[in-house]
Amino acid sequence: MSTEKQIVIIDDHDTFRASLRQIISRYADFALAEEAADSRQGEAAVRRIKPDLAIIDLSLPDRSGIQLTRILRNTVPETRIVIVSMHSKIDYILGALRAGALGYLIKESVSACLRDALEAALRDEYYLDAALSQEIAPRLLETAEVMDIADATYGNLTVREQEILRLLAHGGSVKEIADQLYISAKTVTNHRANILGKLELHSTADLVRYAAKLGLLEDVD
Q1: 142 Cβ partners below 8 Å, 6+ apart?
Q2: 85-112 burial: b if 16+ Cβ within 10 Å, else e
Q3: How does DSSP classify residue 114?
Q4: CB atoms near residue 153 (< 10 Å)
Q5: Is 0.70 topped by the overall pTM?
Q6: Other beta carbons less than 10 A from residue 118's beta carbon
């Protein structure tokens, strides 16, 4: 019977999945069980296989990696989760930890850090990239009042919706946001409507108050 730790990869970027496959293939004690390109495929794979580990992209096309992490921790708690992302903002890291992830890696660091993150997760320890240590992680969870990403509704927003929420809260107009993100004004308007609906808010003023409560007005890229 194989003693390899089974991994499911959930990421919508073919090239990055290929890189992960190559990295994992070098680990004699880990094996890739399956991979998926969106959260629903990934959720189905994890529910079916019940792997030791799942590597989940923060930005998935149909649901955020944070939302998927929360679902999997409730339904397949034996699977430890490591989030990979292009984003290094503290609120994303907090969101991942609050949802139940044990690791958070910036994608450009994966080659150097993945094995350490996987091994830490198997020990039920935190592994955080961007100079965040095992000692800092519990403190982040305990002192998250200023940026209380525990708010479940925030985790239901996609990463794009979170980005647009920030920009709206900072006073960006629909046209300015569209130009900044290289998308159409109609797309921004649709995202704004989706955000208001998910958060059960009614106006941009409500969004500003909501963002202030979560501490999202500190800075914006």
Answers
A1: none
A2: bebebbbbbbbbbbbbbbbbbebeebee
A3: H
A4: 12
A5: no
A6: 24
Ordered structural domains, the chain, with CATH? 5-142 (3.40.50.2300), 157-213 (1.10.10.10)
CA–CA dist 167, 73 (Å, integer): 30
User: Which residues make beta-bridge pairs with 81?
Assistant: 54
Query: Cα separations (Å) of 143 from 51, 118, 166, 181, 207?
Result: 32, 26, 21, 32, 23
Sheet holding 127-128, edge to edge: 30-36, 5-10, 53-57, 80-85, 103-106, 127-128
Longest dimension (CA), the chain: 59
Query: What tokens were used for 172?
Result: 């960006």
- Written as tens digits, the pLDDT of the chain (221 aa) is 468 999 999 999 999 999 999 999 999 999 999 999 999 999 999 999 999 999 999 989 888 898 899 899 989 999 999 999 988 777 778 778 878 899 999 898 899 899 999 999 999 988 887 555 555 556 555 555 444 544 567 778 887 888 888 888 888 889 988 888 888 999 999 999 999 998 888 888 888 888 877 766 654 33
* CA dihedral sign, ordered 18, 22, 23, 24: positive
What tokens appear for 55 in the block? 């590597």
